[in-house]
Amino acid sequence: MSPGVFIPVLPYPEVAAAVKWLCETFGFTERLRIGDHRAQLIFGGASVVVGASPQPIIGGQSIMVRVPDVDRHFERARQHGAKILRPPQDFPYGERQYTVEDFAGYRWTFSQSIADVDPKDWGGVLVNVAEKEP
Fold it and tell me: What is the per-residue pLDDT for 133?
């Protein structure tokens, strides 16, 4: 099984083309190919599955990926033709992020932690979810 607790499955019209584009543009590594209808990609200890579908399911969803160097990653994505929706910028919650759209219309946000900011300083509330898990 692919690494990671949550493994998003993204439908693309052509798996091979999606794998090539995602690996070249975002730096994913292909882990497993299953015929021409499915592939597992890994990135930094996490994974995503690309599945065959006549049409991507585009809506309000997006994928966020943590990277060590947002600016370097942004340049790679830009050079490979990712549609820039928001160039790198710093946010008050301590993240530097950029957002792009891939060739199938999925939105990807890449994020780098640049400061350890207390959530109270930007209007967040830290909740101890570990106590609430079954």
Answer: 46
